[in-house]
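Researcher: Sequence recovery benchmark, item below. Answer with residues only.
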């Protein structure tokens, strides 16, 4: 009976965790460049059940077989599939088609600057010509993105008094001359990327970056999130039903235990 309570409770806990992931996806369905998350299932280790004090062999514990302990969330993963493009006609807005990430010189509240990665290309150009994020952080060029070196020399910059274009390779042109380039990098394994917050990713130990190989830059457009709102809602309904099923299991086990406890004193009466 206690096993039943545990199984029901654990199922409710795991469905709540899945619901948290789905809720976060829905909350970011309109976030530029957001990549949705999903979960995988993993089974708890099986336990061998034994019947002790068997009438046939008093001193021998007879094996009854393995007991499944239920499922748990194996891992949370990021779905890196391409989002659709939304045309904005803002020259500083850039969208990545294919693989790759923008590299950002991110400065935290303590004033520490480090390289972060994002698919969010909603940049603006300040009065000095630097490409900056909505939080004021700087976009890195290919040299800064691949080397991890943060300096003004590696911040993407144009002459703000002249018009500019960005080609598919990320080269920035002014007066028929390449004046800078946009850093787009690939990661050796996206498992080394962890969500930092603010639509940015951290590169964990063991991860390496290189010049992007399979991308194109679309100027005047933004990549929308890859969240399908209808699919997320359907999954949330499924999760809610599974959660309610777990509640019923716990309630039924609780009632059974109450009955068993109430009838103990009546045995032999």
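Model:
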């Amino acid at each position: 009976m206690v096993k039943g309570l545990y199984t029901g409770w654990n199922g409710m806990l795991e469905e709540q965790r899945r619901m948290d992931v789905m809720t976060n996806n829905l909350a970011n369905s309109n976030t530029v460049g957001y990549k949705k998350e999903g979960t995988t299932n993993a089974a708890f280790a099986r336990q061998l059940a034994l019947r002790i004090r068997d009438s046939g062999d008093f001193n021998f514990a007879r094996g009854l077989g393995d007991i499944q302990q239920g499922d748990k969330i194996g891992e949370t993963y990021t779905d890196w599939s391409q989002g659709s493009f939304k045309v904005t006609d803002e020259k500083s807005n850039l969208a990545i088609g294919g693989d790759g990430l923008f590299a950002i010189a991110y400065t935290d509240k303590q004033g520490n600057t480090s390289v972060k990665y994002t698919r969010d290309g909603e940049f603006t150009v300040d009065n000095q010509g630097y490409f900056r994020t909505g939080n004021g952080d700087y976009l890195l060029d290919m040299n800064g993105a691949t080397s991890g070196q943060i300096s003004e020399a590696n911040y993407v910059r144009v002459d703000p008094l002249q018009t500019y274009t960005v080609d598919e390779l990320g080269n920035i042109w002014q007066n028929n001359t390449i004046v800078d380039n946009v850093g787009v990098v690939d990661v050796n394994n996206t498992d080394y990327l962890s969500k930092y917050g603010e639509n940015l990713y951290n590169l964990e130990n063991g991860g390496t970056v290189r010049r992007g190989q399979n991308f194109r830059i679309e100027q005047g457009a933004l990549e929308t999130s890859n969240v399908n709102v209808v699919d997320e809602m359907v999954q949330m309904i499924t999760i809610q039903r599974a959660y309610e099923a777990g509640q019923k299991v716990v309630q039924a086990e609780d009632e059974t235990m109450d009955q068993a406890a109430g009838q103990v004193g009546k045995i032999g009466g």
